[in-house]
Amino acid sequence: MATIVQAVRMALHKGEAELGVTDIFGEDVGPPLGGVFTATQGLKTAWNTPLDERGIVGAAMGLALAGQRPVAEIQFCDYAFNTIDLLKLAGNTYWSCAGDWNVPMTLMTPVGAGIHGSIYHSHSFDAQATRIPGWKIVMPSNPRDAYGLLLSAIADPNPAMVLLPKALMRARAESPEEMIPGEPESARELRERIDAPIGDRSEWEPDWPDTALELIPIGESKTLREGNDLTVVTYGRLARVGMKAVDTLRDEAGISAELIDMRSLHPYDWDAISESVRKTGRVLFMNEDTEITNFGEHLVRRTCDELFGELRVAPRLHAGAHLPGVGLAEPLENASVPTLESVTQAIRELAEAPEVGRSQRDVPRVTRRKPTVDFTLDPREMNGHIVTREIFGRSLRYR
Length: 399
Description:
There is one protein chain. The chain is α/β, with parallel strands linked by helices. 32% of the residues lie in helices and 17% in strands. It has helices at residues 4-18, 53-65, 84-96, 126-129, 143-155, 187-194, 237-253, 270-280, 295-307, 330-336, 340-352; strands at 23-26, 46-48, 70-73, 106-111, 136-138, 160-165, 222-225, 230-234, 257-261, 264-266, 283-290, 316-320, 373-374, 387-391, 394-398. Helix 7 links the parallel strand 8 (230-234) and strand 9 (257-261).
């Protein structure tokens, strides 16, 4: 039974063996460490780069344009902000050359809080990533999704970004459907086969399990919990948090919440979101990023634009505080990003919020008779309940 970091490692091996991955690189990605989270241990094409995020992204772009299929890692997303201009170039290349050049590169980076990483190891990147057109962006919440979404990112002919929640790197499958097809059921057996030993690794070779080449389509969400009272839409670490909160409220308060794990931030599964919102009439969007210019604000805006008449309560966003960073101490971190307690409270408040007015679906459908228009009568001759207006010198009469 794999952790998310082991799932990433097995997907990268599968990419090397069957999808044409030519280079896996980044800071400490190659031997002997194999990544700060050990996600790249034992991979044949892994190599180390200098501490230079712009160099990493630029090298990936060059390799991709030269016909290779690289996977680059930014050690922590906190250090990816100085690469934005290069990410924009990678994203617009296929469009700007009218489809003549593909950029088949994958960029993966750990994101979010939950590990007490303080100001330089706790930021989120989803809001920034979704502002860069041309990229496909995914964020898994369990090992099977991490495996399948990374394989889809590798196979895509243009740039794909895999955002890996730091707090879930050691998380294992919580149900059989979250396990990777073909992986050993024993966590110990898998660890002995693919985790590098402590000490001398010069002679060590991983014994890769024969996992399936299972690509999870980018752009498809997954409903983690069915419900009728309200919809909760989230991804990454908060998908796990959301499941606990939804289960607690169902048992303790009888609140039936539907929980959707987006999995893909672009393209995203609007059909699944809108179908659920039409059913429940209430929706809460959740993520860890700072609340101002948040990706969830886009989803709130689209919900208002397209589903306003279906809502019983205004859509809500539960996100990180608009602060320059995330504090190191646990109370400071908990005050900066959503927690199990704050998520549970946000869901409860939305479920118990009174309706504002009447939703469009509760209003009887009335077919009104079109007004009768008469251009011939003089308004001075009209009496009774008649509205008149002079248009272009002629009297317009409404009955």
